[in-house]
Amino acid sequence: MDLSFLVRRLAEEAVPEPGTGRLRLPTERELGATLAVSRGSLREQLSMLETLGFLDRTQGRGSYLQVPDAGFLRLYFDFSRQLDQLTYEQFDAARELLEITVAEAAAELATDDDVAELRGLVDRMVRAAEAGHQGAALEADLEFHRRLFTVVDNPIFNLMRDGLAHVLRGAVVERRRLAAEREPAAAGAPRPSDAVHHEVVDALAARDPDAARAAMRRHFLVWRFATRS
After folding, report:
1. CB-based contacts of 122, cutoff 8 Å, min separation 6
2. Which among 213, 129, 111, 107 has a CA at the least distance from the CA of 176?
3. Domain extent for 79
4. Domain with 19 in it: what CATH number?
5. For the segment 127-181, what is each residue's pLDDT rounded down to a tens digit?
6. Ramachandran quadrant class, 200 (left: phi over 0; alpha: psi -120 to 50; beta: rest)
7. Which residue in 41, 133, 148, 190 could disulfide with 128, CB within 3.0 to 4.6 Å?
8. Both 148 and 181 in a single domain?
9. CA quadruple 203, 208, 212, 215: dihedral positive or negative?
10. Whether 77 contacts 88, CB under 8 Å
């Protein structure tokens, strides 16, 4: 039985549990009879759904349907990468398109507090990089981009971001290392690949979606220039 079809059928058979709102499933025996599948085959497929995060099963307490977190996407991306079905270039392109769109949306949604927090993260990143604290600069960089997604607060974007982040973290680490080695920086001024983040924040502060989109696009162009071979 196709897993997507099974999930739909399980949703039809699940019953809201009083007081919790959770969707409780009938017993495996009852499900097997309703769905006309053997108990062994059903148990195997339920185990797969549990692994993917669609099912919460506890001995003696029953089974519940649930919405999974990004873990199943991370699993898919990891396997696809290991099997050479997806390349880092494809991950990078997907991230770039996603973040350009998110920056544009964030310009319409960001509050003054959001802008102040994002500006603070850029300042922290610049200070850490100038002091040679590359680990702290990396974490501020990653948090800046994560924070943009929380401003937009679209669960689909958040899911995609969390799924991609696991694969891309290593790439960001390598890019920052290369930028630190190769990118020229004027005395007393941040490296261009760090400074370009200020352009994104300025566009958000101006509530200018077009400028935010252009600034984020420029962010990726600057990083490519800084780390090219």
Report:
1. 140, 144, 194, 197, 198, 201
2. 129
3. 72-227
4. 1.10.10.10
5. 998 888 989 999 999 999 999 999 999 999 999 988 888 777 877 888 888 877 7
6. alpha
7. 133
8. yes
9. negative
10. no
